[in-house]
Design brief:
CATH architecture of the largest domain: 2-Layer Sandwich
Order of helices and strands: HHHHEHEEEEH
Strand content: 15-25%
Structural class: alpha+beta
Number of strands: 5
Helix content: 40-55%
CATH class of the largest domain: Alpha Beta
Number of domains: 2
Strand order of the largest sheet: 1-5-4-3-2
Organism: Corynebacterium nasicanis
Protein name: DUF4287 domain-containing protein
Distance between the termini: 34 Å
CATH superfamily of the largest domain: START domain
């Protein structure tokens, strides 16, 4: 599990732990900033900070920096990413949501966000990855770790169901 840190940054997670000194005294932001200053890319700096927080007992797998519980699921599918996103929006029209979804866009991303009936929230982002489309769902504000597992299964199945509606390429 920890080999990924050494492969990506040249330091094992234990080396990063030593680099930080006493991580209990450092906030998540401090850990990420120091990891970045220590040579990790921004993405890896965040991953290192999260893993260190898990190691020192500050957070569990699936727990965000604010203490809420989150889950994620993703699916890579064929097709031009903006067209796939539009199809995803249509696919989600008849799903039960607490409120209308919020859709935003940049030149390289599309976002679909919604409040769910159980009080949790979901954000699905869509982008082009090596000529395909990646849809990534992040479900936040889950009530328990059990709900996390159920949300992960549900969104994985939902993304797979959506993928089956797309033409194969």
């Amino acid at each position: 599990m920890h080999d990924k840190f050494e492969k990506a940054t040249g330091r094992s997670i234990d080396d990063w732990m030593e680099f930080f000194g006493d991580p209990q005294e450092l906030s998540h932001q401090d850990l990420a900033r120091l990891a970045s200053e220590g040579g990790a890319s921004e993405w890896w700096a965040q991953s290192i900070a999260v893993e260190i927080e898990r190691m020192i007992g500050r957070r569990q797998i699936g727990q965000t920096v604010t203490g809420s519980i989150a889950a994620s699921a993703s699916k890579t599918v064929p097709g031009e990413w903006t067209e796939v996103f539009d199809k995803f929006v249509s696919f989600m029209e008849n799903k039960q949501l607490a409120d209308a979804p919020r859709i935003t866009a940049t030149d390289t991303w599309r976002y679909w966000r919604a409040d769910l009936e159980d009080g949790s929230q979901v954000a699905v982002d869509c982008s082009e990855v090596k000529g395909k489309t990646r849809l990534s769902a992040k479900i936040d504000k889950l009530a328990s770790m059990e709900k996390r597992d159920l949300a992960k299964e549900k969104w994985r199945a939902l993304l797979n169901e959506f993928a089956e509606t797309l033409p194969s390429q």
